[in-house]
Each structure stands twice: as structure tokens, then as C-alpha cells.
Write a structure and sequence with these properties.
Layout: H1 3-15, H2 18-25, H3 29-43, E1 48-51, E2 54-57, H4 59-86, E3 92-98, H5 105-116, E4 121-127, H6 129-137, E5 143-146, E6 155-170, E7 180-181, E8 190-194, H7 199-211, E9 216-221, H8 224-232, E10 238-241, E11 251-256, E12 262-270, H9 277-295
Parallel strand pairs: 3-4, 3-5, 7-11, 8-9
Antiparallel strand pairs: 1-2, 5-12, 6-10, 6-11, 6-12
Length: 296
């Protein structure tokens, strides 16, 4: 059973005349009659009552026509949706990203992009680093904006920016008045660590290995906002990127003089998976914006 057969069938059913239907379809009358005969043979019943070139649906034909009409309507809708999804000027971009990036970076990036491409829509998937990477692996999103890079086979990474890490301490802490400290000045302090699903944990562990820094982890929080909350409550110190969503009352941000204390934020996509035109536009825009930021 072919789509053309079904289109021919509905046209004949609507016009109730084989010759006129053939003219409307721009095919010959014998070709149309042959198509209808094959359809009836496949279904095992006659669909029309015939009187010369005039035809009328019988009860089998009426039942079948109702289903075919609905099916072809759904197919047309599907084609329209795919056309919209793949239209670079009015498609949909599905982006996964880490929770902390949703406080200002992602909203500002999307806002700037939509000033240029106002018809493109977004589906946003927010979660932990692990959850975002899983969405990309499973094909549930086009792009993943994350930190650090996953390093998985078949994943392409482009760095967007490096965010400096700061020592964060309670406002009453002995180090709170300093503008800058070395990483090892935090070595004997109770440290607010991060759950392994958070991307920053891997970054901190890599920095710790490089500089032989062994934090004395007292608590492990699920996310960066909770880390900030524990620090503000006077329960310990930590390392965090400066972000609006983390700047709480009762904590101080101190620059770290130790080199390399940064977290790398980038955009990832699957190398061999089809990337819709709208998603390619957004990816290229994000990379361009990051390069302009570096130039400034």
C-alpha cells in the first residue's frame, strides 16, 4: 500500500467519478483504475459501488476512507513539523545545560541569539552535568553546554570561556578581608565539597592533583547553590565560579593567586549525529560570541 494509492482513493471518493478524478490528479484514467483495483485486491473487499464512470463508496469504503483521511492528515502534519524543525530561520533548538549556567549565561545567550533569529524556538533541558551528558548521548538534545568537557568518543567540544574559581569563605572568616590567597591557605579549613554528578567536582579534583592540595571535606552538597548556602552559614569554605545565583549574603569571594584555578565551559555535540540547521546556527553563534568576548 502506497501513499499515492491512498491519495488517489480519497480523490475518487470525494469526486465520485473516475475520469474527473484522473484529470484532477494529472494521471490517466486507466492508471487510476489500476491503482484502485490493486488497493481493493490488497484489502480483499470492494470499496466502491460502480455505475459506469460514476462511483460511490460502499460501507467498506466509508470505513476505510475515514481512517485514511485521518492518517494522511497526520502525515501532512508530520511533514510540516519536520519542515519547521529543519528550517534554519524558524526551527527548534534543544539544548541541555548545567544548573548553574541557567542563572544568567544561558538566558543572556538565548536572548542575544533571538534578537537575530526571532522565529527560532528553544527546548531547554536543565540538570546536573551527568544528566546533561546523558541527554546528549541518548539523542534527547542537539547541544550540551557544560563544564567540564565529557571527553567521550564521538563528542565534539568547543570551549566557550574559562571562568575563574574563587575561594568562598564566610563573612566572619579570618581570610575574609584578603583580596587574594594561595590555594594551600585553604588546606586546613573545613571544605564544602560537591557531589560527583556536578561537573565542578572533577575540575576541583584535577586542580587539587596538580597543586597537591588536599581539601578537608566536611560536607558534600548536591549542587553549587547548596555549597554557597553552607558557606554563607559559616559551615566551611569552598571553590566556586562567580555567578549571580551563588552570591549570597554572609560570604566573601577571594581571588586565588594559584595559577590554573579555572573551570572550562564549552559546547558539545555528537560528531556523527544529524544537527538541524537551527541548532548549527545557535552553536556557531555561541562560539562566535565567546571569541568576541576573548578579543575584548
Amino acid at each position: 500500500m502506497e501513499l499515492n494509492q491512498l491519495e488517489y482513493f480519497l480523490t475518487v471518493a470525494r469526486m465520485q467519478h473516475v475520469t474527473r478524478a484522473a484529470e484532477a490528479l494529472s494521471i490517466t484514467q486507466p492508471a487510476l483504475s489500476h491503482s484502485l483495483a490493486k488497493l481493493e485486491e490488497e484489502l480483499g473487499v470492494q470499496l466502491f459501488e460502480r455505475s459506469g464512470r460514476n462511483v460511490q463508496l460502499n460501507r467498506y469504503g466509508q470505513t476505510f476512507a475515514a481512517r485514511v483521511s485521518n492518517a494522511l492528515q497526520e502525515i501532512r502534519r508530520g511533514k510540516e513539523e519536520i519542515a519547521e524543525l529543519t528550517d534554519p530561520e524558524s526551527g527548534v533548538v534543544t539544548v541541555a545545560f548545567g544548573n548553574i549556567l541557567g542563572t544568567h549565561f544561558i538566558p543572556e545567550l538565548v536572548q542575544r541569539f533571538q534578537k537575530k533569529y526571532p522565529k527560532i524556538r528553544f527546548e531547554l533541558c536543565q540538570g546536573t552535568c551527568t544528566q546533561a551528558q546523558q541527554l546528549l548521548e541518548e539523542g534527547q538534545c542537539d547541544l550540551n553546554i557544560t563544564s567540564p568537557r565529557s571527553g567521550s568518543d564521538g563528542i565534539v567540544w568547543e570551549t566557550l570561556f574559562d571562568a575563574d574559581l574563587y575561594a568562598v569563605v564566610p563573612a566572619s572568616h579570618r581570610l575574609a578581608g584578603k583580596e587574594s590567597i594561595g590555594l594551600k591557605e585553604l588546606a586546613d579549613e573545613p571544605f564544602i565539597g560537591i557531589h560527583r554528578d556536578c561537573g565542578l567536582r572533577g575540575t576541583i579534583e584535577a586542580i587539587s592533583r596538580t597543586h597537591h592540595f588536599l581539601p578537608q571535606v566536611k560536607y558534600s552538597a548536591e549542587d553549587l547553590a547548596t555549597v554557597a548556602g553552607f558557606v554563607a552559614a559559616g559551615l566551611g569554605v569552598s571553590l566556586l565560579p562567580k555567578s549571580r545565583g551563588l552570591m549570597l549574603e554572609g560570604m566573601r569571594w577571594i581571588k586565588i593567586a594559584t595559577p590554573g584555578c579555572v573551570c572550562e565551559v564549552g559546547i558539545e555535540w555528537k560528531e556523527k549525529r544529524y544537527l538541524p540547521p537551527a541548532a548549527r546556527l545557535f552553536r556557531d553563534f555561541a562560539i562566535e560570541v565567546s571569541r568576541l568576548r576573548e578579543a575584548i
